[in-house]
Prior knowledge:
Blueprint: E1 5-9, E2 37-41, H1 42-47, H2 57-66, H3 77-87, H4 95-102, E3 106-111, H5 131-143, E4 146-149, H6 154-161, E5 167-170, E6 175-177, E7 193-194, H7 201-214, E8 222-225, E9 230-233, H8 242-253, E10 259-264, E11 267-272, H9 278-288, E12 297-303, H10 309-318, E13 322-326, E14 337-339, H11 342-362
Amino acid sequence: MTNQNVMVSDMAITVAVSNSSLFPPASQKPPAVPGSYITISNKKLLQNLDINGGARINAWVDSMRASSPTHIKSSALSDDLNSWIVHHPSALDMFEQITNASKGKQIVMFLDYDGTLSPIVDDPDRAFMSKAMRATVRELARYFPTAIVSGRCRDKVYSFVRLAELYYAGSHGMDIKGPSKGSKYKKGAQSLLCQPACEFLPMVDEVYKTLLEVAKSTPGAKVENNKFCVSVHFRCVDEKKWTELAQQVRTVLKEYPKLRLTLGRKVLEIRPTIKWDKGKALEFLLESLGYANCADVFPVYIGDDRTDEDAFKFLRKRGQGFGILVSKIPKDTNASYSLQEPSEVMAFLRRLVDWKRQFIMRR
């Protein structure tokens, strides 16, 4: 293959989209011409891996490589990105259309953390958000119900954000808690708690301790306990060591058929096999806020990772609101719009706050 770029995909099935002008046709792909995208479906790759059987470890490593944008050559990337942007336009450029579509409806904001509110960094313990971003999110929560939905442990992401008025959904939505101080949006929000995977806690903790030990032989590997899931970060691991690391994780998971593997941005995620993800977290939070079967709600989800696709797909299926993917490179996604980096996320959130403030003043 020459002069071709890779568009990383998590989806084995294309989801149908609305014909409304608000939703760009995410399922419509650029024509297959020289220099076009090659779609690599990591979900298909992982489905072909039998953790408890004798699947080729190379397939696992291939999917790890596919999760790494550093393998995409920069030549012709600009042209490919421009083509992709046609189908996933900038949320900043489309701001007026977005706000017009939300008029008369309650906007509810859902935000991923890493890569969305904070930059991706080598050390996950140092993924701090800026003071400006924190101030922006604080203002956002004054005007809209706002939730942080992260793969991180809920306590960890709260320690980064430190805003008590928000909803927090940690462990990919498996640990949800309402604001720790009064919420004007829903009475009783302070007592809100949802932990659908409690029975897996001892198992997850056991796997964490085992992986912590075995990963010591791989320089740069970092194992993180996110309470209801375990993250094995390989961002700082030499690519020559990826096969060894994948084999170590595979060997451990063979003993735990009730746990499954997913891929993020240079991270292996081990989590329970229950049918719960960020999309389910959005559904639960909207119901908790009183918007379960509400026609005048407008949920917005902003995220950058593969696990955020579950939230994007949920909004597509619901037919309300939209998703915004944070990415500098073309990716197969169910999001309707895009932003390139956290600084653009902050700019979008600020415009949203200003728009709402001016709307209130005009009334």
